[in-house]
Amino acid sequence: MNHEVIKLIQDIFDSIVIIEVHLNNIPTLAIYKEDIKTVDAVERRLSIIGEALWKADKKDKTLNISNKARIISLRHILVHDYDLIEDATIWMICKKNIPILKNEVQSILGIT
User: Fold this and answer.
1) Which of helix, strand or coil describes residue 64?
2) What residue segments make up the domains of the chain, in order of their start?
3) Sequence-separated (6 or more) residues with CB below 8 Å from residue 59
4) pLDDT, tens only, 29-61
């Protein structure tokens, strides 16, 4: 795999870990919604994930990442259509989809 693609996948992994740290002591959506710094930080990291995946996918179309198009589209929404974002949607993505993406990225990077 191309060194640049590996770096981009590593950026995705790093952002996932940072999201996990941000959400570590936030047990509910209600608490998340009240913590604007965490909301901003998580949304920023989701944007980085989408951008890095978009760049990596341009260089390697064979990346085994499910929902690539949806992840990349989320980045577009976060950056350009931010007024459409709902905290509940971001919370659900972090709780249900980020763990799946983490496993896929770990597999690509050979992390167990």
Assistant:
1) coil
2) 3-109
3) 2, 4, 5, 8
4) 999 999 999 999 999 999 999 999 999 999 999
